[in-house]
């Protein structure tokens, strides 16, 4: 049985966008990290992106330029999974979202890892229980769902399976707190965990409002951004219910819930757009709205600017 103090080394399996991003966060917190990927090119690109992201953060007051080299030096790379896993106490799998591939990775990790090592999967939507099902070390396997970009979004959903013992949950929660994340414990292995269930309940209603002609896409987004969305970082649903009163919340739900979208299928308009090849930014900017290349670039820049400012303020408020 491990404790947080026993976690000395991290291994990352898969060096794609999430893999190298998570590796960077562990290295920023002082952990030596072994990052495995099949392809040398992925590892090289990952290291390049890490250096660029660390520089980007430092230039915006999140970290220091003179620490970039030391952080980079904590990350070693390998094309041999066993080499990365052998002396790791915590392994984070971040390969492509494919059940058979993930099961294969965990089955191989069985023989490669220290007996007590915790093995985490960064799956976005798949069941950690099913991913663990072909492994001999099912009780060491847990979900840790990071959010993109991993070096900015604090949330990590720690998803237990029915076989996860309490010490694995405790060490995983403690480790993510120690690296400056905001881990939350998802006590049941349910599709969408916590945050994607919330997010897609909102998306389903947004797309339904557009589909039903109640408002166009831009108006739907503005209604959220300039209204309830603005207060969400401070006042989320359960807090809001407490603030306005549960009796008022009950009256509103008694009246309105029956009118809300409750389809178990994706929106027909969404399917139609996908069939027509209108995928948004990746297909010339036509999606729910039409975006010029400049508008696409500006939106991405605004998002990063907003996130860095929000994290800086969060850190300041917490005296970091
Ligand atoms: N991108 C996101 O927003 C996001 C957020 C949270 C979690 N995730 C999850 O993180 C995981 C990785 O996603 P990503 O966005 O980094 O994807 P990515 O495509 O950037 O990286 C996937 C990695 O898997 C490797 N890979 C693919 N097939 C492989 C194989 N057969 N054997 C070994 N390695 C193989 C690739 O080489 C690559 O390094 C997925 O499970 C994804 O659902 C993604």
Structure description:
The chain is 50% helix and 11% strand. It has 14 helices and eight strands. It has helices spanning 17-28, 40-59, 68-73, 81-86, 99-112, 128-132, 166-178, 195-211, 217-225, 228-231, 237-244, 246-256, 268-276, 293-317, and strands at residues 10-13, 33-36, 75-78, 90-93, 118-121, 141-146, 155-159, 182-186. It has an eight-stranded mixed β-sheet, with helices on both faces. Strand 6 and strand 7 form a beta hairpin. The two termini are 31 Å apart. The mean pLDDT is 97. The structure holds nicotinamide-adenine-dinucleotide. Residues 14-19, 37-39, 42, 94-97, 101, 122-124, 146-148 line the site of nicotinamide-adenine-dinucleotide (NAD). Nicotinamide-adenine-dinucleotide is lined by residues 14-19, 37-39, 42, 94-97, 101, 122-124, 146-148.
The helix-and-strand class reads alpha/beta
Q: How many distinct folded domains?
A: 3
Largest sheet: 8 strands, mixed
Low-pLDDT runs: none
Strand content: 5-15%
Quote the average pLDDT.
97
Spatially, the strands of the biggest sheet line up as 3-2-1-4-5-6-7-8
CATH fold topology of the largest domain: Rossmann fold
CATH top level label of the largest domain: Alpha Beta
Per CATH, which architecture of the largest domain?
3-Layer(aba) Sandwich
Number of helices: 14
Task: Tell me the series of helices and strands, N- to C-terminal.
Answer: EHEHHEHEHEHEEHEHHHHHHH
Helix content: 40-55%
């Amino acid at each position: 049985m491990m404790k947080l103090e026993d976690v000395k080394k991290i291994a990352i399996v898969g060096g794609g966008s999430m893999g190298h991003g998570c590796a960077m966060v562990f290295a920023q917190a002082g952990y030596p990290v072994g990052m495995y990927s099949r392809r040398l090119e992925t590892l090289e690109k990952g290291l390049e992106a890490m250096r660029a992201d660390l520089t980007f953060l430092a230039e915006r007051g999140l970290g220091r330029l003179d620490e970039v080299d030391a952080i980079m030096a904590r990350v070693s790379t390998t094309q041999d999974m066993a080499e990365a896993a052998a002396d790791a106490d915590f392994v984070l799998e971040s390969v492509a979202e494919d059940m058979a591939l993930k099961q294969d990775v965990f089955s191989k990790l069985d023989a490669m890892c220290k007996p007590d090592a915790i093995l985490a999967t960064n799956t976005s939507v798949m069941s950690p229980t099913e991913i663990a099902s072909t492994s001999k070390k099912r009780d060491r396997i847990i979900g840790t769902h990071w959010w993109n970009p991993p070096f900015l979004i604090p949330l990590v959903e720690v998803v237990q399976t029915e076989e996860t013992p309490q010490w694995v949950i405790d060490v995983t929660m403690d480790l993510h707190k120690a690296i400056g994340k905001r881990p939350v414990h998802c006590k049941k292995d349910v599709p969408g965990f916590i945050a994607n269930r919330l997010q897609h309940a909102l998306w389903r209603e947004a797309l339904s409002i557009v589909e039903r002609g109640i408002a166009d896409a831009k108006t739907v987004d503005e209604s959220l951004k300039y209204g309830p969305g603005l207060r969400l970082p401070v006042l989320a649903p359960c807090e809001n219910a407490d603030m306005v009163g549960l009796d008022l919340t009950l009256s509103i739900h008694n009246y309105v819930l029956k009118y809300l979208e409750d389809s178990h299928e994706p929106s027909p308009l969404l399917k139609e757009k996908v069939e027509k090849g209108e995928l948004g930014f990746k297909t010339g900017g036509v999606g729910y709205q039409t975006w010029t290349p400049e508008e696409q670039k500006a939106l991405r820049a605004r998002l990063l600017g907003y996130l860095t400012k929000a994290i800086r303020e969060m850190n300041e408020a917490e005296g970091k």
